[in-house]
Each structure stands twice: as C-alpha cells, then as structure tokens.
Amino acid sequence: MSILGIADPLRFIFDIGGFFIIYSMLSISMNLDYGFAGIPNLGKVMYFAVGAIVTGSLSLRIISEISGIPLGDFVTQNISYSITAGNWLSHHPIEAVGISLSLIGLSSLISGFVGILSSLPAIRLKETYLAITLLVSGELVRVISSYYAPLVGGTVGAHVPDFFSWVGVGRIHDLFLLAYLAAFMVASYIASRLLVMSPFGRIMRAHRDNEEALMSLGKDPVYVRGSTLFVSSAIAGAAGSLYAIYSGNVNAGDFVPDKTFILSLIIVIGGMANVNGPLVGSLIYIVIDRVVRQAKFFLNVPFDVNYLSIGIMGVILLLFFFFRPKGILPEKPIVIARNKKLKNVSE
Amino acid sequence: MSQEHVSSSPPIKIGEKILLAENIKKSFGGLVALDGVTVGIRKGEITIIIGPNGSGKTTLLNVVSGFLKCDLGRVLYKGNDITNMPPHKINELGLVRTFQIPQPFSNLTVLENLLVASRESKGLKVLNAMKKSKWIEYEERDVERATQILNIVNLGKVADQPASKLSGGQLKLLEIGRALMNGADTVLMDEPAAGVAPSLAHEIFSLLRRLAREKEMTFLIIEHRLEIAMGYVDYAYAMAKGRVVAQGKPEEVVNSPIVIETYLGG
C-alpha cells in the first residue's frame, strides 16, 4: 500500500499535522494584523524567525548550563552536541518539558516585543510604506542571522535537540510531539477568538475601517497597532519556536519573505477577519504543498517542481478573487444582543 | 505629586467661553486657508459658522479638533492649550467632531459603530480584553446606552446592519449618534444637515437645541442650509477667504451687507 510512494501514510499525516499547526498559528497571527486591524504586515516572517532563532540559539546553551555537560564551540560542536543533549534529555523528562516550555515562552515574549518595536515606524508611515519597512526589517533579521554564526550557526544552521526523546521512538514519540504542538495552536486560536470578540477587537476592526474616525472618538491608533502587533507577534514567535523544536533545526536562511506572502494567500483564501479562516486556509495550503512535495518524484515539469505548490495556490487565489473574493469563510458582522443580559447569550 | 489634569482653572459656567481659537493661520503651500481667524464658543450654546465654499470653515474645524496642525495661533479648550495636540488627546478632554463626508466603520454594525465611540471600557486594554469578566459590566451598560441613543437618532431599526448598508442620511445620523455616544460635552459638526431631508434636518437641530439646554452641551456647527439652521442657533460667524468677516446674532450676520456680498460676489 503505497500511494505516491508514501511508505508510511500515518507518518505522512503526522507531517501534515505538524506543518498545519505551525502555519495555522502564523496565519492566525497574520489575520489579527491584516484581517482584523488592517496593518499590512509584510514582515510577518520576521517574528517567526525571531521565535525560531531564540530557540535555536538558546536550546543547546541552556541544556549545557543545566546538565553541566560542556558545549564547546557553538558552531562547530553543534551537531554532535545536539545528540549528546538529546541523550541527556531522554533521561530527564521534567527538565525536557521545563526547558522547552521556557524556550517557547521566551521566544514568544521576545517576538512580541519586536512586534511592539516594529509598530513604532507605523506612527509616521501609512499603508504601503509601512509594508515596505516591515518587509525590509524581516530581511534584515534574516541576513544578519545568516551571517553572524555565533547567533544561530550562520549558514550552517543550528540544531535543536529532541525534547521528546524521553518518550521513546516511533509513532508514540511523534504523537506526543504533535499533541504538544497542537496545545499551543489551540491556545493561540482561543486567544485570538477572545481578543476579536472583545471591545478591543471591535477597536481593531474600527482601526482597519477608518483610522481618522477612530482618532476623532478618542482612541489612539498607535496603541491599537502596538497592542495588536504584540499579541500577533507573540503567537508568531511561539510558532517559530515550535517549528525549531519540531524540525530539530534552525537555518536563518529559510526565513525568506515568500513565507509572508504565502500567509497572506492563506488568509485571503480562508477568509480575512474570520477567526476560522486561517485554519481552513492553512489546511488547504499544507495539504497541497505536502502532496506536491511527495508527488514531485513522479512529476515531470520543465521547472523546479518545488515551486509547483505556490503555482497551484496562485491559480486558486485568482479563482477566489474572481468568484469568492471574501474567501471560504467571509467576515460576518458581529451582532450584539440588546435588552438582555449579555451573559445569557451565546455567541 | 503628578496630577492627571494639568488644568487648575475653575469649571466653566454656562455662557462662558469654553473654546477659543486665537489668530489661527494655516497655509497649504501657497494657498492661505486660514488668515488669522479668531473664534470663541460659549458653553451651552449652538454656534454656527457660515461662508461660501473654500472660505476655510472645515480647515478651522480640522485645526481645532487636531486633524491639521496650524502654522500660527493657539487653541484653548476648557483652559487647556490644545494647539496641535493629536485628535484622540483632544477628545479625552471632552471635544468630539463629526465629518462632512460621513466616516463610518463600514464593516461594523450600526450598534458596534456606537460602541466604538464609548470612552470608558476596561475591555479596551488588550490585556483585559481576553477576560470577558473584566469588561462585561461596562459592555452591558454601553449597549444599553447605545440602544437609547440609536432610538433618539432613529437608527434603532437598523442597529444590526453593517454601516455599509446605510443611506446617506442615515450615515449622517450615525455620525451624530457616535458623537453622543462618545459622551463629549462639546461637539463640532461639519454640515450635519447636508444631504438630509428637511423634516429630518429640523429634527436634528431640535435635538441639538434640546441637548444644549438640558445637558449643557456646546455645539459648533458648519452649515450651508441657513434656512433650516438659523432658527436654532445662538451665535454666528461668517467666514470668507480665510477670515472672519462678520459675527453676532444669527439674523444680523445673515443680513449684513458684507456677508451677502461674499455669497453673491463669490
């Protein structure tokens, strides 16, 4: 039983699951910025990169501190030490979970503050210029971390040890890892849902619709952008950290702007400013992408077959623009119950 | 020893000047839009600014409400110097404005448009927002107040429609509803009756009259439809080419030769 040369279908589904979780979190983040608050965040990949870089840079170093096993040179000893660290973690489950949780938390927090920082140019810049500034900032992070080796291994990358080596190997290990990732995705989804259904969420949408009117009513758009970017970037940073843990490797060169464009594509197809839109969009993209990657051994196309999934998504995007411009799940007006206690009303 | 409000001046009584714009100058490149305009607004009164198109009325309103920075002059509101302050800071002191071309939050419902205007809710802080228990009380109170205001401005029936579905006249009413919901005591209105049926325009002005009398609210209004507005206002300024050319009782201003000349002579 082998479809498209997939020897282990369950493993393939796990793989889709892992990427689906990470892309869902990133597109939830993108949707908060662009879909709800109207901030054209073309630097989204930067917060993802910051999360992954923090985790990639610190995981071996922290384990070295805690385990007492000396690390040596971070760049040259990286691969061998990640195996040593994995072995050590397999005997120390509490430390493994503790360290991974702290890394995810720290990555998320640092990324959140980078989000607040990047809202500062937005005080003076509007739409297009802000989008360009954010795009360039993302590239800046990628270029610097690619060439400054002590940070995250430079062009060689840095390894992240297997934090679930204590579970064992095989499917049970993969299932554990997937469940761990899924918990963060669910938390991000709930957080985004609570946020957009709140009075602050209303201000976010008002900011998107009409910034001048919002100012005239006493709301500070700088605060709206800063707070939105803090939350969305924290989610993207957590996704970056999870990606590092999931793939076991961080290579700064991976964080190219294409990722941001794919995320915008995902939310347009899924439905902008709809909390469930990012999940639907991510699922479609990840399934197409993973299947194409698998099918490439059987396809004979006159270009690099890895770009095929982007091509397919491009065609889907055009079809959506023509036939369903608001995406699969369009934004719905939020109807608030009146003359009743709101507590008794279901959303 | 820091104080929230720097102003130590006593509260302003009815009939005293609450808003004063002194010697305001504003140019756009070579075009002088405001050439030393001085305007004072008394608390509890409805003041109107008339003048032909291009006379600088909207520019003045934009400067006072913080949407444009003036080149020269100063604006005092309740004893505070608000010259060139950002609009949301000015609003915090109690001054709200409406727009000549309505500026709705198009994808929000009419009710939500009003709720955005509410100034006090713990749910506006991002860290509180995710805990419903922190803001639900404020929200319930706001929804109740918004519902009352929607009934006052005749938008009760369309409360759950997105603002993008409203007619031009309804959008005007929404602007007024938002200003009321904002809870400000001073309202600057840019042509509240433009594009509105005469009977509705009279309703709008009677409402403003009532709010001025009962709630001691202050209004500064730009309006072209003098035949409707004049019966409701206390004081009038006439502007032409970036200057105040006449001021005083409404009927005197409208009938003054210089005003008639600016309107007819262009």
Walk me through the structure.
The complex is a heterodimer of chains A (347) and B (266). In chain A, helix 1 (9-36) runs parallel beside helix 7. Helices cover 68% and strands 1% of the residues of chain A. The N and C termini of chain A lie far apart (45 Å). Chain A contains 13 helices and two strands. The longest helix of chain A has 28 residues, at 9-36. Mean pLDDT of chain A is 89; it is low at 341-347. The relative contact order of chain A is 0.18. Chain B is an alpha/beta fold and 266 residues long. Chain B has two domains: 3-103 and 184-262, P-loop containing nucleotide triphosphate hydrolases (Rossmann fold, 3-Layer(aba) Sandwich), CATH 3.40.50; 105-165, no CATH class. In chain B, the strands form two sheets. Chain B has a six-stranded mixed beta sheet with strand order 6-7-8-3-9-10, sandwiched between helices. Chain B has a four-stranded antiparallel beta sheet with strand order 2-1-4-5, covered by helices on one side. In chain B, strand 4 (72-77) and strand 5 (80-81) form a beta hairpin. In chain B, helix 3 runs parallel beside helix 6 and helix 5 crosses helix 6. Chain B starts with 16 loop residues before the first strand and ends with a helix. Residues 1-8 of chain B have low confidence and may be disordered. Chain A binds chain B through residues 191, 194-195, 198-203, 205-206, 208-210, 212-221, 227-228, 230-231, 273, 331, 333-336, 338-339, 341-343, and chain B through 65-67, 86-88, 91-92, 96-99, 103-109, 111-113, 115-119, 121, 123-126, 128-132, 135-136, 138-140, 143-144, 147, 159-162, 178, 182.
SSE layout and pairings?
The complex is a heterodimer of chains A (347) and B (266).
Chain A: H1 9-36, H2 44-67, H3 78-90, H4 93-119, H5 127-147, H6 149-152, E1 158-159, H7 171-196, H8 199-209, H9 211-216, H10 221-247, E2 249-250, H11 258-270, H12 277-295, H13 308-323
Antiparallel strand pairs in A: 1-2
Chain B: E1 17-28, E2 31-42, E3 46-50, H1 57-64, E4 72-77, E5 80-81, H2 87-92, E6 95-97, H3 110-117, H4 126-129, H5 132-152, H6 168-181, E7 186-190, H7 198-214, E8 218-222, H8 226-229, E9 235-240, E10 243-248, H9 250-255, H10 257-265
Parallel strand pairs in B: 3-8, 3-9, 6-7, 7-8
Antiparallel strand pairs in B: 1-2, 1-4, 4-5, 9-10
